[in-house]
């Protein structure tokens, strides 16, 4: 009775609705969340769900919450960072034409203007916003007050959910508190020097200022952001620019000094009474013996625009940076056009991006494969000279003698702090993710 055709499969839902009505009364609001389209052969279609929605309305449901996709087709129900906003809006718009009760849409609605447009254009009656409300619990209030620039930006990375799948507390890359922020005022006000203007440095300066300290932030380059200025370059990573913009906007009252390299003399004189936080970052690793090749560079060199690769490229390292660089360099369409870049990605282990999970990893891997990136797993480079690269896979040696560029994406080395007795935060303390850097800075600075 509970399977087979659409009526059998809908039966349990209708019985639950009937019992909720019986227990809670007609004035109790019932919302049913559905996949408006599962985007999979053999799955529920939009036509199926229009019919289902009509039956839900007859069953006295008050409104319908239209999602999409399923848990098997990765990235369909919770799309990856960098993908288009409101991916299920076509389903909510069509379903709305066939029922008289309100219809909502959900997913990747990270900015107020997106919600405003969807409602104004008749796509839906309401927008469901999940991850951005975890990132900033005041999202709706700030939008209502017209303070959209003050909304802490959700980048859609999904770390809020991937952690709890492994039994960890819910967390957020951009908001280390994951709640309405409560930073206590420091009992003793100090002078604080933050060395380094990357994400860890900006978070430390912000928290220190909120606690009532007098804060100076020194950055040796001409702009804030650190590695984020490179991290936002690969395909689908553009939302990281919003993090830089937001974090800069939170530094009101902080004495920010760009193009300033802090020296030992400055610590002994100008900043002698300051408590020092050092966040000087990390530098890309290079494999010295392999630098004999005719043209070598790091992934950071490419993404920052400092160096330009040729057309036949080998990338060493299948972590996030190596994969994002391969995706960035590969042709948008794998059409064998003569001027397309030819890219080989060599990774020693059996998997790509082993520290990552979720929709972003899945989408990036599929994109590389569709673009024709040659992915060599369980492979180890055994020999490099000026013109030749050799690698071994499954006990067989392969020779690449027509490569023009060798790219290193093999991790980072922490930069040694130039200052003794300083609090180390961010990558110079331990190389990690953006979430690691911001959370580490938040936790340490709350104790100063």
Classified in CATH, the superfamily of the largest domain is: NAD(P)-binding Rossmann-like Domain
The overall average pLDDT, rounded, is 94
The proportion of strand residues reads 15-25%
Structural class: alpha/beta
Helix content class: 25-40%
- Tally the beta strands: 19
The tally of helices reads 15
Explained architecture:
- With 448 residues, this protein is an alpha/beta fold.
- It has three domains: 6-129, Aldolase class I (TIM Barrel), CATH 3.20.20; 191-283 and 413-445, NAD(P)-binding Rossmann-like Domain (Rossmann fold, 3-Layer(aba) Sandwich); 288-410, 3-Layer(bba) Sandwich (FAD/NAD(P)-binding domain), CATH 3.50.50.60.
- It contains 15 helices and 19 strands.
- The strands form five sheets. A five-stranded parallel beta sheet has the order 7-6-5-8-19, with helices on one face. It has a five-stranded parallel beta sheet with strand order 10-17-11-12-13. The chain has a four-stranded parallel beta sheet with strand order 1-2-3-4, with helices on one face.
- β15 (389-393) and β16 (396-400) form a beta hairpin.
- The longest helix is centred in the N-terminal third of the chain and has 19 residues, at 6-24.
- The N and C termini lie far apart (64 Å).
């Amino acid at each position: 009775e509970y399977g087979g055709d659409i009526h059998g499969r809908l039966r349990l839902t209708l019985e639950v609705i009937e019992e909720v009505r019986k227990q809670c009364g007609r004035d109790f609001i019932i919302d049913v969340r559905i996949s408006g389209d599962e985007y999979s052969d053999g799955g529920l279609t939009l036509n199926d769900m229009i019919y289902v929605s009509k039956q839900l309305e007859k069953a006295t449901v008050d409104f319908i919450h239209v999602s999409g996709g399923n848990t098997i087709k990765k990235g369909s129900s919770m799309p990856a960072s960098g993908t288009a906003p409101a991916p299920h809006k076509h389903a909510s718009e069509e379903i709305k034409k066939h029922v008289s009760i309100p219809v909502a849409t959900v997913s990747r609605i990270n900015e107020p203007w997106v919600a405003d447009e969807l409602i104004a254009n008749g796509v839906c009656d309401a927008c469901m916003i999940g991850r951005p409300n975890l990132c900033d619990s005041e999202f709706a209030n700030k939008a209502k007050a017209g303070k959209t620039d003050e909304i802490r930006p959700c980048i859609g990375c999904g770390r809020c959910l991937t952690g709890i799948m492994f039994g960890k507390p819910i967390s957020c890359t951009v908001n280390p508190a994951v709640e309405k922020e409560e930073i206590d005022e420091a009992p003793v006000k100090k002078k604080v020097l933050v060395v380094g203007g990357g994400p860890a440095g900006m978070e430390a300066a912000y928290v220190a200022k909120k606690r009532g300290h007098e804060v100076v932030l020194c950055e040796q380059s001409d702009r804030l952001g650190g590695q984020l200025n490179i991290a936002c370059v690969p395909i689908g990573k553009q939302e990281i620019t919003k993090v830089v913009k937001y974090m800069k906007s939170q530094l009101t009252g902080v004495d920010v000094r760009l193009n300033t390299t802090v020296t030992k003399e400055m610590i002994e004189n100008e900043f002698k009474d300051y408590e020092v936080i050092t966040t000087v970052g990390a530098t890309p690793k290079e494999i010295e013996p392999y630098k004999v090749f005719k043209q070598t560079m790091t992934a950071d060199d490419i993404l920052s625009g400092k160096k330009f690769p040729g057309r036949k490229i080998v990338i060493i390292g299948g972590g996030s940076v190596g994969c994002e660089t391969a995706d960035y360099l590969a042709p948008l369409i794998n059409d064998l056009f003569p001027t397309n870049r030819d890219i080989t990605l060599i990774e020693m282990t059996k998997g790509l991006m082993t520290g990552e999970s979720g929709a972003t990893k899945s989408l990036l891997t599929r994109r590389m494969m569709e673009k024709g990136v040659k992915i060599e797993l369980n492979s180890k480079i055994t020999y490099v000279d000026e013109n030749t690269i050799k690698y071994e896979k499954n006990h067989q040696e392969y020779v690449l003698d027509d490569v023009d560029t060798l790219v290193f994406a093999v991790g980072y080395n922490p930069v040694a702090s130039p200052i003794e007795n300083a609090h180390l935060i961010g990558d110079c303390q331990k190389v990690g993710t953006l979430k690691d850097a911001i959370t580490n800075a938040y936790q340490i600075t709350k104790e100063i």
